[in-house]
Amino acid sequence: MKYSKKMIGKRVYLSPMSIEDAEIYVKWLNDFNVTDGLGTSNNIISVESEKEWISQNTSKYQLAIIRLEDDMLIGNCGLQEIDHIRQCGVVGLFFGEEENRSKGYGQEVLNLLLNYGFEYLNLNNIMLKVFSFNERAINCYTKVGFKEIGRRRQSYYLKGRYWDEVYMDILKQEFMTKGTIHNDI
């Protein structure tokens, strides 16, 4: 089996990344429809560089998003910049194909990651960054319980226009109060 079910939701599970998926990631990470929202459209990713990146990050908190119904890789997510002394970290995710966006997978993935970060990594604050044009993502993050904590104005230039970087976070207590932490996740 190519994937292992580290965190299981209702429709997706999170698995350690597989180096065998490098070509799929390269396709996505060279697609402006994916990278414009990540802020990485200026990068050119090769299969070799992606394999190297995957092999260097397999023991970190970078995970593949797999659809439960068919074990199909649909995206990537992770917790980065973890500081165990300050008990904080940064979350990120993306979906490769348009057909897997706006289906509620993002909320499910975030709930799995937040549960893991708060319950297993003992974090208290998890934040993210999103660009102001990405209303679909902002709506998803708000539904999960993230709150805007600030903006870096006009700091992202894309296609002839400047956009704000929006910073959002959620505290462990807010997540727990929302009733989304489950021991069976």
Structure description:
This protein starts with 6 loop residues before the first strand and ends in an 8-residue tail after the last helix. The chain has one domain: Gcn5-related N-acetyltransferase (GNAT) (Aminopeptidase), CATH 3.40.630.30. By secondary structure, it is of the alpha+beta class. Helix content is 31%, strand content 34%. The chain has an 8-stranded mixed β-sheet with strand order 1-2-3-4-5-6-8-7, with helices on both faces. This is RimJ/RimL family protein N-acetyltransferase. It holds the Pfam family Acetyltransf_4.
Structural class: alpha+beta
Give the overall average pLDDT: 92
Question: Could you give the distance between the termini?
Answer: 21 Å
CATH superfamily: Gcn5-related N-acetyltransferase (GNAT)
Rg is 16 Å
CATH topology, anyone? Aminopeptidase
How much helical structure, as a percent, in the residues?
A: 25-40%
Q: What composes the largest sheet?
A: 8 strands, mixed
Our count of helices gives 6
CATH class: Alpha Beta
Pfam family, one: Acetyltransf_4
Protein name: RimJ/RimL family protein N-acetyltransferase
Domain N-acetyltransferase: 12-169
InterPro entries: Acyl_CoA_acyltransferase, GNAT_dom
